Amino acid sequence: MTALLSAGFLFIFFLPKPPAGEMIFAVESLSVAKRNQADRYTPEFYNQASVSCDSGMAIWRRENRKFILFRKFDLVREYALLSAGMSDSANIRTALLKAEMKEGQARIIDTLNKIVKEINDHYSSFPYSFEIRERITRGKMLLIDAETAFTEGNYIDADSYITDSENLLVSSREFADLNLREYFQSFPQWEKWIALTLSESEKTGGYAIIVDKFARKLILYHGGKKIREYSAELGRNWIGSKRIMGDMATPEGMYQIIKKLEGSGTKYHRALLLNYPNSEDMARFKRDIRNGALPPTADIGGMIEIHGGGGRGADWTEGCIALANNDIDALFPYVRVGTRVTIVGSLYDQKKIFEN
Known about the structure:
The protein has helices at 2-13, 20-35, 38-41, 43-64, 74-122, 130-151, 155-183, 187-204, 279-290, 325-331, 350-355, and strands at residues 207-212, 217-222, 225-231, 253-262, 270-274, 305-307, 321-322, 340-344. By secondary structure, it is an alpha+beta fold.
């Protein structure tokens, strides 16, 4: 009996110990890594941990099919320890990567919000094409998505949204910058027209009008001094001077009022007809036809007015300057046939505008 008991104890003593503790620890470590999204942020470490865990489980199942005394679990324990170690590495590296992404994304989101503000402040009335406006709208929407994902700590999705938003917004802003830099190359000419207009008003003590297209302002001067200012709306394609009929551009140059219209004389409440095209416009138009810049069938157009019907909050005319009806009513008594109307891209150079 004693011998039988001794044999039983020896049998139990030499039984291989199952690696349950090690495998439970490996599975729990892998689960923690999954909750921390290591599978998304550091997939190379997470996948190695997962493969090692699966390998350990597979070997354990294989060993359990053997006679109990022939089972060996050393390799199972090695895979379990390897899996737990890789899970820990995945957690550590995921935390570091999240912190790095959070810091970097916060800076980029701040920069993109500044670009959106710049677009809204300086380019809201820029005559973008439909495609460019769509890009800006899409870029703004993606930025909102990026901010939402960032706030929720979903930095991978935020990174994708940020990249797409940045591509759309930056390229649109650069497009506007390029066009405006080219447009403002005419500023020296605008300055000359402004100086001549104000000098004439000062010498004669008369009234004069300057239209600042970029600022959307019609400014009334008397004796060279500003006395009134009105919001103005322009042609839909206001960048640059008018070249032909139908280009939806508001002309630039020094003009005069040649007729005052009201009542049945205009469909826009009241109107001040300008002498567009003037001699400079005609000379440029003929030169463009001669050098092939315009087709021989082109028409320079006419009937450019300062008229009522404005106040719509957008550029909508075919080249005229629109004021709200109460503003054209206020302006009407000050001007007469012969009053100077000078239309420029801007009263100020581009740098000064953007500094303000």
